[in-house]
Structures are given as structure tokens and as C-alpha cells.
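Lab manual, section 2.4: Encoding a predicted structure.

Procedure: take the sequence of the chain (87 residues), apply the prediction step described in section 2.3, and record the output as C-alpha cells. A sample record is shown.
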Amino acid sequence: MKSLIEITRESMAARADDAALAYTAFVRMCGDVRPIRVPGMDTVCRLAVRLHTKGYSVQEAAAREYVYRWHLALQSRVFGVPHTIGM
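Recorded output:
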């Protein structure tokens, strides 16, 4: 069984250009979002893993990142409880 680091390195080597295109598509949808690094791994690495291991297209990977960011925001704790929209 491969470790997460091995999977990430393999994915970045195989799909770095597609991951950059997916990140560009994501930025067009959301604007230049900071930080690039959110819980887990770097956004471009996460996109490369989705493209390589899941077989997503560039557009699907960008859309999954968009949904992931919304999920993080809606599930974050505000005053100790999850955001009401995300409940």
C-alpha cells in the first residue's frame, strides 16, 4: 500500500500540467483565494491527486475543489457551533 506522500509525488509527476489548468479554472470560479494551502495538502497537489487517482477531468477536479472549499466554510465553527447554513 502506498503512502500519501508517494501518491502525491506520483500524481504531481504525472499530472502537474493538468493540475495547474484545474487550479486556473478554480481561480476563475472563485477569484484568487488565499490561502492556497487549506487543511490537508496544497491545493495544486490535491487537484493532481484527484486527476490522477480518481480520473477526474480538469473541470471536474476544479468543481470538486470549489465544493470542498464551501464545505470547509460551512462546517467551520462559529462561536463554538457549526454555521447554520451548513447544518
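Check your result against the sample. Residues 4-86 form one domain.
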